[in-house]
Specification:
heterodimer, A: about 300 residues, mainly alpha, two-stranded antiparallel sheet, about 0% strand, disordered N terminus, B: about 290 residues, MetI-like fold, flat
Chain lengths: ~300, ~290
């Protein structure tokens, strides 16, 4: 039973509150610095974006132009191409990476010699810089003397050099490749963490029923892994919507916007490119729209993960 | 008897195939890193010829000499060390204080502040990079690395803070209580009791922060677009490419990339257990 609370705030409780604050002044001092940083570098920029989204602003002069920026972004086919590219990138990355990650995690979950070494080796790409990784891929996928072309030619798979990053049909493939290359080991580890929570008895009884490895994977591992896997995939999905570094370094959105994603699109309006000058007001409106799109998917993720935590 | 043999062979074949698969994946994943490091020791002529040779025919340090002396990589290396070093120390202060206050502190608006903190995971870095930069211009701190450091520390420390908070939670509250009875203030308890106890997790957060800031690209890029002397290694390497691809000094790219890669690779080789467990638990909790 709950005790009835006092409906009127008496001076006594007020005093108590101020006393409490006085007693805890050190807490406030300690959270002050991080909090000011948070307000300055996270909250303020968000409000800045909302404010400037209704201005025409180039870094020097600004003039109010109402909802024009929003109209412009919502009707710009290049923006919608960037949105589509973001989702194409995200979906391809997810669909290709996770089956590989699951199979490798299942193998690595067994008794194997050198298991820890292999795991660490798989994780290595994840710890290096995405920008540097993208530079390495530029060199390897170079159309002129890249080692990928050379290897494919010596294997007889292609006869002439392919301009991987220079043609619209293959550039996105390289972007997806570098992202899978970098994140595979990380996701294997997350899946492994999920696998370790599956009770061994389930496999033992499946073995008694005569299930082979594939059947064990299909009827025991995947259903048991389900909820955790869902979380990991959505984590990767939401993260991929933020992709910037790899695209900016590999192609800067080109050729002909074939790899432009939401973040490179708006970055180029914020800071300008070699051929265009910055339009910060418009970029602010784009940021608001992009944030809404990402927030929707993040919320879905959070809801799903909360549901799972409740179910546990 | 025969059947037994067959099963044995089947088992061996299966094991061999498993290892072949695992090693093939390992080769694919490690190849690009080995490729760039080995290429950095090739002469420019040999590098431009291409081919499938991984090892240099003639080892040379010329690329490093050129990168260091003529391409400003000495400066970039210093910038990277300064930026990541100072930022890591500040991040450690901020996250340990915040993690401690979130778990042990009683203050008005705690729930609100915590959820404000949490909600920053919604923000994609690129959407706020310009306002952050403009704020630093207004504060007059965009002309030195300090602005970049403050902006990086002020940015998203959610995962690190919650890693620390989770760890503080595991420390028995009796320790605080007895310290309090001895007359320790809230800050003293943090400084004298909690900090020494959370060292393992603080070390993990420190390593992750160093790796994160060392590798970061977008924010350093935004801060150095018009200030080349402040470039970090990642930005410096990528900037070599911006001119037309044909005239890019690839030998300097390979040497610069290797300079940028080696520190994180060494740290990972020494402390991979800490890094892996920190990143995995951060993903699961965050």
């Amino acid at each position: 039973m709950n005790l009835p609370t006092l409906p009127v705030k008496s001076p006594a409780t007020k005093k108590k509150l101020s006393l409490r604050i006085k007693e805890n002044y050190q807490v406030y001092l300690m959270i002050a610095v991080p909090l000011i940083l948070l307000l300055a570098f996270v909250v303020y920029p968000l409000l800045w974006n909302i404010r400037f989204s209704v201005y025409e602003y180039d870094g020097f002069t600004k003039s109010f132009n109402g909802l024009y920026n929003f109209k412009r972004v919502l009707t710009d086919p290049m923006w919608w191409k960037a949105v589509a590219n973001t989702f194409i990138f995200t979906i391809f990355k997810t669909v290709i990476m996770f089956p590989i990650a699951i199979v490798l995690a299942v193998i690595l979950n067994g008794d194997l010699r050198g298991r820890n070494f292999i795991r660490a080796a798989y994780f290595t790409p994840y710890i290096i810089s995405m920008a540097i990784a993208s530079m390495i891929f530029i060199i390897m996928f170079s159309g002129y003397n890249g080692i990928v072309n050379e290897i494919l030619k010596s294997l007889g798979i292609i006869r002439e050099n392919v301009e991987w990053l220079g043609s619209e049909s293959t550039a996105m493939g390289v972007v997806v490749a570098v992202n899978i290359w970098k994140d595979l080991g990380y996701n294997i580890l997350l899946v492994l963490a999920g696998l370790q929570s599956i009770p061994r008895e389930l496999y033992e009884s499946a073995a008694i029923d005569g299930a082979n490895s594939f059947k064990k994977l299909w009827y025991v591992t995947l259903p048991q892994l389900g909820p955790v896997l869902q979380l990991i995939i959505m984590l990767s999905f939401v993260g991929s919507l933020h992709a910037f570094d790899s695209v900016n370094v590999l192609t800067a959105g080109g050729p002909n916007h074939a790899t432009d994603v939401m973040m490179t699109y708006l970055f180029n309006y914020y800071f300008g490119t070699e051929s265009t000058s910055p339009q910060q007001g418009y970029a602010a409106a784009v940021s608001v729209v992009a944030s809404i799109i990402i927030a929707i998917f993040t919320l879905i993720y959070l809801k799903a993960s909360k549901k799972m935590q409740d179910a546990e | 008897m025969k059947r037994n043999n067959f099963n044995r062979i089947k088992k061996i074949v299966k094991k061999v195939l498993t290892y072949v698969l695992l090693i093939a994946v390992m080769v694919i994943l490690l190849f690009p890193i080995a490729f760039i490091i080995l290429s950095s020791f090739k002469s420019n002529r040999e590098f431009l010829l291409g081919g499938t040779n991984l090892l240099p025919q003639q080892w040379t340090l010329q690329n490093y000499v050129e990168a260091w002396n003529t391409a400003n990589f000495g400066r970039y290396t210093f910038n990277s060390i300064y930026f990541s070093g100072i930022a890591t120390i500040l991040i450690l202060f901020v996250t340990t204080m915040m993690g401690y206050c979130f778990d042990r502190g009683q203050f008005v608006g705690k729930k609100f502040i915590m959820s404000l903190y949490m909600s920053t995971i919604f923000i994609a870095g690129a959407t706020t990079v310009y306002p952050v930069f403009e704020l630093c211009v207004k504060l007059g701190i965009n002309k030195s690395l300090n602005g970049l450091i403050i902006a990086s520390v002020g940015g998203l420390q959610v995962m690190n803070t919650f890693l620390i908070m989770g760890y503080v939670k595991t420390i028995p509250r009796e320790i605080d209580e007895s310290a309090k009875l001895d007359g320790c203030s809230f800050f003293r308890i943090y400084w004298n009791m909690i900090l020494p106890l959370i060292k393992p997790m603080a070390a993990t957060v420190g390593i992750l922060s160093f790796q994160g800031t060392w590798n970061s690209y977008m924010l350093p890029l935004a801060f150095t677009i018009s200030n080349e002397d402040l470039r970090t290694l990642t930005v410096g390497v990528v900037a070599l490419k911006s001119e037309s691809l044909g005239s890019t000094p690839w030998n300097i790219v390979t040497a610069g990339s290797t300079i940028a890669l080696v520190p994180v690779l060494i740290i990972f080789a020494i402390m991979n257990k800490q890094i892996v467990s920190g990143i995995v638990s951060g993903a699961v909790k965050g």
